[in-house]
Write the structure tokens for this entry.
Amino acid sequence: MRHLMHRHLGKIVAGAALALTGTAAMAAITLPSDAGAADGSGSRPAAAGAPAPGRDGGPPPPGVVEKAPAQGERGTGRDPLTDDELRRAQDLALPRTLRGAAADVTGKPGPERLTTDLVELTPAEAGLADPPRRARVSFYDYRSDSYLTTTVNLTTSTVESADTQHGVQPPPGHDEAVEAARLLIAAPLGAGLRQDYRDATGHDLTGPDPLSVTGFVYRGRAEGAAPGALGECGKHRCIRLFTKIKNGRWIDTRRFVIDLSARTVARLG
């Protein structure tokens, strides 16, 4: 029995030695080239097979930034709308003869453009080799407080449908959020925002440029509270803001409601 145990232990020790030898071999293979001992000059020997500096394998050439491929006038299939298609869709949706009858968020002629999206194909069109390309363009007209949507066929350059709705408030665009911030900064109720900005930066806040703002719709009574001046929200275009100093801290402006239609500022609660 003692003899058998010695034989068994001998196998274990031999197996452990082999495992250690294998581990050492793997470590020798996987060590980085500069992990060896330094020679007498203080430098480290180059790894076997690695090209020495100054030979064929010098530093890689600098990267080259290639220009984006030229964009065609018309996409195919479900390709995103090209820049040319976006321009054509907006021109078809809003002829120049009608632009003077509407106003954007700053009061200039022409409605405020919100979105331009590619329209899904009908089931019958999905199997066509060259299906038509359609776009749906949406606007908000501040002169009549109306939401306008127009579907245009970019293949035939025609307007297929147009719709005008009142009391519908889609998410605001970036320009609307910036204009809301401008109104809030200039209003007496914006004193807290101006003070917070000065406390954070040491500078006066005179306009929206130093801020990053995101707007979300406030629908007034549809949300359960519409005190005083906010009673028209929902019919008017009213938004609240998430406000952040660019490369800086957040400033809480969520209690303020900016009525972009009436160009007034009120406070909730």
Observations:
- Residues 174-267 form a domain with the Nuclear Transport Factor 2; Chain: A, fold (CATH 3.10.450).
- Residues 2-30 form the longest helix (29 residues).
- The radius of gyration is 34 Å.
